[in-house]
Amino acid sequence: MSQLPSLLAQMVPETHPNLEPTNPTPYLLLMLLGFVVGAVGHLVRSRVLVVIGVLAIFMGTVLLPIGIFIARS
Question: In whole angstroms, how large is the CA radius of gyration of the chain?
Fold first, then answer.
């Protein structure tokens, strides 16, 4: 479990121009995609799509910013 931060840091490239902390576009797009997938999952009554949508929202709001912070520190 102590290796998890270093593994996350290796997955995020340090010099990617779209993953700047001041550029909210990738985070917002991932969250929007999550909402769309979750809504479609509710419409077709698919729990798998709802879970994927919730996970995409969680990644956009929590995991991606934390991974970028770890990669830059």
Answer: 14
H or E element, residue 70: helix 64-72
CB 7 within 8 A of CB 65: no
Q: Give this prediction's pTM.
A: 0.64
pLDDT, position 2:
63
CB 35 within 8 A of CB 61: no
pLDDT, one tens digit per residue, over 57-66 is: 998 888 888 8
Eight-state DSSP code of residue 59: I
φ, ψ at 4 (rounded to 5°): -60, -45
Spatial separation of the C-alpha atoms in residues 38 and 36, rounded to whole Å: 5
13 and 67 in contact (C-beta within 8 Å)?
Answer: no
